[in-house]
Amino acid sequence: MLKLHDFISKLILDLIDWVYPIFKKFMPLQTFRYAACGGANTVLDIFLFFVSYNYILRKTPQHIGWLTISPHIASFMISFCVTFPIGFYLSRYVVFQETSVTKTKQLFKYFFVVLGCILLNYIFLKLFVDYFGWFATPAKIVTTFFVVIFSYTSQKNFTFKGSADSL
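Structure (tokenized):
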């Protein structure tokens, strides 16, 4: 398993670092790695949301006992279950490799930031879809814009602070 982990993280780093010279004039390497990893995970999140909403859940509310979950919130939950661990992995092993913070402490901090992201996703999706009447996928894209700003700022200044000073 360790060999697979080393292979995957090296492959991702090599790919990102290969593209980096194009952006070298605009940002430091660590910031570019953060943008590349976060951008890829964000695209995956929106794609999974779209597929879940339109094809898995077929835009129908999900009934779990006495609880009914709207399809856009259920789709967010599905995409989150995939992108949360991927996001932590990329942040820990690709972007902020040199951190001195233990994995457990970092995961705990990362989880708290993600709880904020969950709350923001929920609030904005409810606002845009249920109150403004927007279609779910464009609402998710706009929501993601706000959540990314919060997430980047929080990860830089809280979760990975020890290694993010160069950002």
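Helices lie at 2-19, 29-56, 71-95, 103-131, 136-159, 161-164. Strands lie at 62-64, 67-69.
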